[in-house]
Amino acid sequence: QLQLVESGGGLVQxxxxxxxxxxxxxxxxxxxxxxxxRQAPGKEREGVSCISRxxxxxxxxxxxxxxxxxxxxxxxxTVYLQMNSLTPExxxxxxxxxxxxxxxxxxxxxxxxxxxxxxxxVSS
Length: 124
What we know:
Layout: E1 2-7, E2 10-12, E3 18-26, E4 33-39, E5 46-51, E6 58-60, E7 68-73, E8 78-83, E9 92-99, E10 113-114, E11 118-122
Parallel strand pairs: 2-11
Antiparallel strand pairs: 1-3, 3-8, 4-5, 4-9, 5-6, 7-8, 9-10, 9-11
C-alpha cells in the first residue's frame, strides 16, 4: 500500500498563488496515477486534477482549467499542484490520492489510497 502526505496549504489572498505537494511512498514496483481532490465545508468532495503514471496525461476540472497545473517528479516521488489566480471558491481541504490506472474521469471512487489533506484558505 501507499502512504501519501500533502503539504503546502495555507492562507492566501484572492488572485494569489499556492503550490501543493503530495509526497508518496510504499513498497510497490509500479508508479501510480495521482489525483487531487478538494472538499469545502458542507459540500461534497470533488475532483480537481489528475496525472498519469509518467506525467504524460493530465486532466482538470472545468472550474480550475487554465489556473491550476498538475505535474510530477518521480525521482522525488512527489506530485505538485500549482494553483494560480485563486478565488474564495477554491477554499477547501485538498487531498491527494493514488490509483493503479489513469482515467480522465477524476472520480474519487476510483482511488484506493488517500492522504490526510491540507487546508487552503483564500480570503482578503
